[in-house]
Amino acid sequence: MYVRRVELTDFRSYERLAVDLDPGVSVLVGQNGMGKTNLIEALGYVATLDSHRVATDAPLVRAGAASAVIRCAIVHDGRELLVELEVVPGKANRARLNRSPVRRPREVLGALRMVLFAPEDLELVRGDPAARRRYLDDLLVARQPRYAGVRADYDRVIKQRNALLRTAYLTRKVGGTRGQDLSTLMVWDQHLAHHGAELLAGRLELVAALGPHLTKAYDAVAAGRAAASIAYTSGLGDVLAPDRAALEQALLDALQERRTAEIERGVTLVGPHRDDLTLSLGDLPAKGYASHGESWSFALALRLAAYDLLRSDGIEPVLVLDDVFAELDAGRRDRLAALVADAGQLLVTCAVPEDVPPSLRGVRFDVTLGSVTRAQ
After folding, report:
1. Is 41 domain-assigned?
2. Which one of 17, 66, 172, 250 is at 20 to 30 Å from 373 when CA atoms are compared?
């Protein structure tokens, strides 16, 4: 799989842009603030329908424009697929596949599989659980796009259930009764348990498959200085099997057990939206104990493990290293270059070309404000 062409209209800093890409290594060179990451972000949006930099769509649209358009031609197994996305802040985005409209934008997921490593990925190690949950769920969808629907259904249930609990909480605060306010809570319990069990089982299966790839990737990046591992941590308990029926019942039992606490706090306290991915180096948690270099290595290993897992599934994702080499010492740069040199398509961004190891200096593109030009 590779991206043959990307076109942007009113996306971030680009009024209009068209770039033709090739398989193999492409290096985007430009000073900070010129738009290298904006181009990468557009490709990431096609792959995940989300930005790795911002939580809302509004910043993706160029100032003064009403919407942004991303067109991406993707070649896979000798066939070309055209994905078109229109990003409209405050409204539903629109999508087309081979110029035909689709009912929901998420129907284009799977057209482009991409693994992106960016400086923001340090939050996978040092940040809140939400970053690690998103890492798992994005990879889950990349492997099996049907999980996009599972995520959407689960998020909808949590939103509705929280609204119900919040209304009951506020009603009580002003002296009302809670009975009628919570009359439909058990219905939402059933929905949460059903969709939550499906999502949780998918995550558990994913972590089991990902673990060996993570250990191998960290060992390669860090030159065997420590053993890295991951484990899924759930409010239902530390040892779980991906048995959907058993997980659904466990969620129902936990919801019943936490009912009083949820009503008192006005929020859903049970479910995979509160779980975490525990990262360990040896016997110690990476968060709080890993050095800066170890944290970078772990974050990089998580992305490389995702890349290797997709490849082992028969998927050849596009690999993107966004301003990564500037953060690594010479040893880690060379080891990383050796690990990714055989990627079907590798996109590298940098401000200084010398930061990129010689083995990865493929086709060069010069990025200036508003334009991307292939170097002669």
Report:
1. yes
2. 66
